[in-house]
Model the fold of this input.
Amino acid sequence: MSTNQTQIQLIQPDDWHLHIRDGEVMKDVLIDTVRQFARAIIMPNLKPPVTTVDLANAYRTRIQLQLKSLGIDSFTPLMTLYLTNNTSADEVRKAKAAGITAFKLYPAGATTNSDAGVTDLKYCHDALEAMQAVGMPLLVHGEVTSPEIDIFDREAVFIYQVLDPLRKDFPELKVVFEHITTLQAAHYVRDAATGGKNLIAATITPQHLLMNRNAIFAGGIRPHNYCLPVLKREEHRLALLEVATSGNPRFFLGTDSAPHAKGAKETACGCAGCYSAFNALGLYAEAFESVGKLDKLEGFASFFGPDFYSLPRNTRKIILVKQAQIIPNELPLGDATIVPLRAGETIAWSLV
Ligand code: NCD
Ligand code: ZN
Done:
């Protein structure tokens, strides 16, 4: 990779955590992702959730039809299944055979469309054992849901209440701690002992590298900066930036771009989710440049994800230029609109 003041060339990145929804709105959000990324892990939290191989195959077909109608043949959706209390070991083996990339654990009630999520991992023993046996990664929304736990502590508590016991019970299970937001999560993943094997990793979003929780309350309530896990204190942002830019292959790009129509965000009880897909790579470049680590962007964005998932790295190259881009105030989303992250503001880096 070559770096200078105004241009970065890198192998095309992938997005290892993405929501593209379904139906009418899918086209509008896919366009933004396929401009930048070669592949993406497609989250299964539809209504109803994607809980079976048949549902995932049907969803994949709808995505492929949409891509075809957009004239795009350069993008691969990587499908996931939504783990429930009732997921069987058979479904896990069937998923492996069908080329499903991973399972996603949503603790019940943790986030958008997670009502069908797992109420207690004890119900998932057989499914987890099968995942471990066939090498199927488990992607984890790492927050406890007990109402008595402070929302800013839910990720840190999840580590010792759920994640660490899970990894002790299934020591060979491949786990991705998704969209980490705390120093505790960053250090847990960095320091986890795996006997030299590729068993744990974490994705990090652009908003958690660029903003702390003050951004939700800057001059008034800012619903478009509200996502889950919620933004944390500055010390956590700094810890995430440190590991993301350290060259450690356990940390890689996952935008968690999560589109919600403007009206569903700007309301008395607004949905969680930031729409970062519009210029996600520009946002990551800004974060890496802020600590003088642009030379570490390519590993984070383009190498460590495929390496963890045992997929080939991409070969096509892309170029980011330091050319200020104003983010639109709104973008189309089906018959509504969406307010992208950093709407109306300037991002220094954009894709050629
Ligand atoms: C996501 C969504 O809207 O689907 N929201 C979010 O705030 N990140 C769900 C999720 O990943 O938690
Ligand atoms: Zn998500």
Q: What stands out?
A: The chain is about 35% helix and 15% strand. The first strand starts at residue 7 and ends at 11. The radius of gyration is 19 Å.
